[in-house]
Amino acid sequence: MNQARAILWAQWRTLRNSFPRGGVAWSAVVGVGWYGFWLLAAISTARLAANPANLGTMKAVLTGGLLLVFLYWQVVPLLMAATGASLELRKLKVYPIPASQLFSIEVMLRVTAAVEMLLIVMGLAFGILLNPAMPKWTALALAPYIFFNLFLAVGLRDLVVRILAHKRIREVAFLLLMICAGLPQLLMLRAPGGGRGLRALMGDAWIGWPWTATANLMERELIEQSLAIVLAWALAAALFGYWQFKTSLSFDAQAASATAARSPRPDGLVERFFRLPSLLFRDPLAALIEKEIRFLVRSPRFRLVFLMGFTFGAVICLPLTLGRGGVGKAVLGANYLTAVSVYSLLLLSGVCFWNSFGFDRSAAQFYFLAPVPFARVLIGKNLSAVFFILVEISAVTIVCAFLGMPLSISRLAEAYSVAGVLTIFLLGVGNLLSVHQARAVDPATSFRSSAAGRVQAMLFVIYPLASIPAGLAYLARWAFDSEAAFFAVLAFDAVVATIVYRIALQSAVDAADRLKESMIAALSAGDGPITN
């Protein structure tokens, strides 16, 4: 394993030399808040499992809990377009390193895509070890299930990444993936018998599912049969993961995404579309907006997130809206368009707000050399983000109309107004983060390589704070039972948001003047042997 140690050492040196010092405090606060929450959840799980009086409860929820662990581990990274740290195969496959060693490292790195679930499983195992009513060996039954998830995560990630690397089928494949992800839950909720399909996966599950077999093994039921099933699933996942990993080693992503050279054509509708900013603004602001729109439209990562905005949002919210009553149906049914629009906005913020210079990378130094005020550069990026948010919400509206969801002028005004106020606040925060935590991003990769937990932690801290003004508007609607009160509060929120944005913009400009050297250095830094 000398090669593996060399890879890990090189990665450590890369992180040590390129990690932005100014982001240490923020990363520490976010990490402690997010993973501290999951650590408390793991401790609660351990306490539940350690109490002999809870054996009946454990038996009732174990299968469903293990299924949720599986879904989180495999689906949430795709939902967040963040697959965790992974090997940079373009840099490593030229070295004489056995594929088995690279695969072993990749399997270990799959932990970074779902650290939260590993904490929960470890808490469960630790609680079982402390439970005098359960044999100690039952905690070991979780080991094959962990490896099953790790191996399967490697295979799914490599398969999806290769599919999305093909220029001609990327968007079609993603839409098919969304349909496959949404149909089961929709069918389970709408089918006769209510949640019968869900119960078939959880309480009344088939013994052949890996989560069912693991639960049976821990409950000491059908031990030999359950152990064989879990080991068979782990072996099948290992073979699938290794097969996909070996295929990715010989896969040329650049060739798959390349297009044949075409002869120049006269300006068409697309070119006129790109030049629309020049009708509304003067140069250099119009040129900056046009440049951003052209670049983002051609970026696979941006296109993936843009598609997720009006597909995943509908997939997540629609089953609850079409459910059989309850609070979820009442709330989401009345605010479906707004809910999906805000979800779309939150997804786009990852590529439009928090690291707006990431796609520019080392080319961002031009902004400091050109005779253009840096504030104008930030405003240009912000206006291009606003343009795509408007297009995204319009796409969400079309999807809602296609699905037959209730639409009206007031619902449209609510969705655009709430998203607009939230956008102004997020743009102000994003300008500050884009300067203080600049980081190079490869626009050609469809998935973010940073761990999903870090993305969720940012949602956990920033988004609730930015949503408080909109929440006050809904509170005014409830208190006064008046739409006029709702929009009046939103109008006041917009004024406050504009003031906050102007203050944050000036602070970002001042910070960029002080930190331009470190900012350019961070944007120019490349990834090590492990992308994170």
Describe what this molecule looks like in 3D.
The protein has helices at residues 2-18, 24-50, 55-79, 89-92, 99-109, 115-130, 142-165, 170-190, 196-201, 210-218, 223-249, 253-257, 269-274, 277-280, 285-298, 300-321, 327-334, 336-352, 365-369, 374-403, 409-436, 452-480, 483-524; strands at 86-87, 530-531. By secondary structure, the chain is mainly alpha-helical. The chain folds into two domains: 29-256, no CATH class; 278-531, no CATH class. Strands 1-2 form a two-stranded antiparallel sheet. The chain is globular. The model is unreliable at 190-198, 324-330 and 451-455 (pLDDT under 50).
Features:
532 residues; 23 helices; mainly alpha; 2 domains
Helical content (DSSP H or I, runs of 4+) = over 70%
Q: Which outline best applies?
A: globular
Number of strands: 2
Sequence stretches where pLDDT stays below 50 over 5 or more residues: 190-198, 324-330, 451-455
Global mean pLDDT: 76
Question: How many DSSP H or I helices?
Answer: 23
Secondary-structure map:
Elements lengths: L1 H17 L5 H27 L4 H25 L6 E2 L1 H4 L6 H11 L5 H16 L11 H24 L4 H21 L5 H6 L8 H9 L4 H27 L3 H5 L11 H6 L2 H4 L4 H14 L1 H22 L5 H8 L1 H17 L12 H5 L4 H30 L5 H28 L15 H29 L2 H42 L5 E2 L1
Antiparallel strand pairs: 1-2
Helix pairs in contact: 2-6, 2-22, 3-10, 7-11, 8-16, 10-11, 15-20, 16-18, 16-20, 18-20, 18-21, 20-21, 21-22, 21-23, 22-23
